[in-house]
Amino acid sequence: MGSITDRFPVKMVRQLQFFLLLGSVFIIFFIIVHWDEVKDGTFYLHAALSTPALPASVVSSERWTSEDLFIWKESSRSVKPNLTIISAHPNNLTHMFMQSSSKNLKLRQARRKRIIKELCSANSSLIFPGKFRTFDQIPSKELDHLIVDDRHGVIYCFVPKVACTNWKRIMIVLSQKLKAPDGAPYLDPLDIPSALSHNATVHLTFNKFWRLFGHFSRPLMHHKLKNYTKFLFVRDPFVRLISAFRNKFALPNEDFYKQFGSTMLQRYANISQPPASAQEAFAASIRLSFTHFINYLLDPKTEKEKPFNEHWQQMHRLCHPCQIDYDFVGKLETLHEDTEHLLKILGISNQIHFPPGYRNRTAVKWEREWFANVSVADRRKLYGLYEADFRLFGYNKPETLF
């Protein structure tokens, strides 16, 4: 190979050498001037660099939400246009990051709870059945989703299709009432079989209080609601419906086929004699469509016959946020951050780790594909059916569907 001057003009080589030399001089000059700061691991940066990072939900999502904008706006208020001393030591940088993250999580909770409080007030334009009844007016059978752990002073309202299996597992570990096959209480949530976590007999719920405490049940409920930490996790209402359909009808689920699937096929698929079982129906290529499911939800006679199943029941009807002042409102869309935050609030983050989620979780971006065969008119009716959930829990109306 030839020399560098053979491949590049002499003038270009000299210019390159000049800039390298100039850069070296600048670096040496900078070190001399700022030696004390560099030696101590402290240097000056403009305050703009300390502006809080974007919420993780923005980074991991293709769209901003009003919640993300609120957190970003509130966090940025503390930024001042002057020079800020920032330590270069890793421990100090980590501490600063944790402080910023903790502040954002607190802002997130404050906003979620504020939205619920405002919409539950008498002055709000949002009206839905049961909004103005008192807690004592709620029948006990409608309180069966409130799981109580007296050992740690925790009340969890579980919503199906919103990571409730793993949260039920954690509630079992906390209560220490259920023993593993070796005779010792469960200590690891993942050791608890999924089916066992959904067994209603293993959980103490408000619905059981009348049988256990009689006339003292309601005063006892009020006492626990006042003194215990109350939390729930919610999810985009339409995405939750898609997830429920995928889990209960897109696969051969015998229980749900017999209770609901065969009826839907008769009424909305014009199949007068549906197969007797889900296996037979799938073998004959008779499948319930998502559109049939939506027709079932919108049919006025559905709830006249019996209440919605818990997997598609409105979340506010399961957890009564206008009657119960929840201390923590988590979302599936920010599950990892919210669970870590809540476990720290409960003081058990060193004892219990939330089990990992499923990889095939239903995504928001799938909405347009799933609703492709649902008419715009029916989409609007469906939104009206679940509007209270959308607004109470801070979810944007899915404008792309309308």
Class of secondary structure makeup = alpha/beta
What percentage of the residues does DSSP assign to strands (E)?
A: 5-15%
| Nearest-integer average pLDDT | 84
For the largest beta-sheet, the strand count, sense and barrel status come to: 4 strands, mixed
Strand order of the largest sheet: 3-4-5-6
Number of helices: 19
Radius of gyration: 28 Å
Q: Provide the helix percentage.
A: 40-55%
What is the chains' assembly state?
single chain
How far apart the termini lie comes to 67 Å
Overview of the structural elements:
The protein has 402 residues and is α/β, with parallel strands linked by helices. It has 19 helices and 6 strands. The chain has a 4-stranded mixed β-sheet, with helices on both faces. It has a two-stranded antiparallel ribbon with strand order 1-2. A hairpin with a 4-residue loop joins strand 3 and strand 4. Helix 5 crosses helix 6 and helix 14 (290-298) packs across helix 19. The radius of gyration is 28 Å and the shape is globular. It starts with a helix and ends in a 10-residue tail after the last helix.
